[in-house]
Amino acid sequence: MWAQIMPELARKHTVVAADLRGYGDSSRPPDGDRHAVYSFREMARDQIEVMAALGFEQFLLVGHDRGARVAHRLMLDHPGSVKKAVLMDIAPTLAMYEKTDMAFAAGYYHWFFLIQPYDLPERLIGADPQFFLRCKLARGTRIDGAFTPDAMDEYIRCFSDPGTIHATCEDYRAAAGIDLEHDRADLGRKIDIPLHVLWGELGLVGKQFDVLGEWRSVATDVTGRSLSCGHYLAEELPEETTGEILNFFRINE
Questions:
Q1: Is 0.85 surpassed by the pTM of this model?
Q2: Is 65 a known active-site residue?
Q3: What is the number of domains present in the chain?
Q4: Does residue 78 belong to any structural domain of this protein?
Q5: pLDDT tens, 61-104?
Q6: 119 catalytically annotated
């Protein structure tokens, strides 16, 4: 999903784009107790270890959707590692669950479908993963042609693997359980790292939540705005998204 913006970012920065645990071609560890193996805490630790192995003890951070939730946990657990962060099209996970209403549940039905016990969602999705994936992506975008044919082929290749489908469900099961426990344990702690939050003006998150307000309740230094697109900012509006990232990273360099 970052293919259209990485070249411009790479003019000034070293770009590391790692698939989260269980996604893409990353490893899919066996399930653990209470889905903790796929918690945002474990995924954040993965990213810290990847960056350390590449020689980066501190870095700028960009995350979208699940990656942004991992970034949120990473900043809480490893605050000294992040200089600045850009988070795209999310409000904090705890706030989104606790403020769920019918409109949100209807639009984000997958949050409540994927967390069902093994192996109900795995079997239903596995019957036709390409159909499920195309429908899910289409519902989130508001700009035709946002997904390049190469990107769509790659998404389908990865998501057609039963192991990836299961790992995806485990991610969401963890988010609805142990991740919320971690978030509640951190209530009252504020992230003291500059954040720039972006969201799709035509998507559900911005309509359902006060995005800036929610992030200012958990962080001390928050800027941000909406972009005229749906959920997939980096693919629907790659140039504008790139500009927002670079401009924010340039401030007080």
A1: yes
A2: yes
A3: 1
A4: yes
A5: 999 999 999 999 999 999 999 999 999 999 999 999 999 999 99
A6: no
For residue 39, being part of any structural domain is answered with: yes
Q: What is the dihedral of CA 198, 203, 209, 210, to 10 degrees?
A: 40
CATH code for the domain of 100: 3.40.50.1820
Eight-state DSSP code of residue 192? -
Tell me, yes or no, whether 202 lies in a domain. yes
Give which of 96, 105, 29, 32 is closest to 65, Cα–Cα.
96
Distances (CA, A) of 151 to 91, 123, 145: 26, 25, 11
Q: How far is CA 221 from CA 6, 37, 77, 89, 114, in A?
A: 26, 31, 18, 18, 33
Exactly one of 19, 65, 186, 221 is catalytic; which is it? 65
Instruction: For 174-184, give one letter per residue: b (16+ CB within 10 A) or e.
Output: bbeebbeebbe
Task: Dump pLDDT digits (tens) for 215-242.
Answer: 999 999 999 999 999 999 999 999 999 9
Torsion sign over Cα 225, 200, 244, 252? positive
- Would you say residue 1 lies in a domain? no
Active-site hit among 166, 182, 196, 231: 231
Q: What is the domain range of residue 16?
A: 6-250
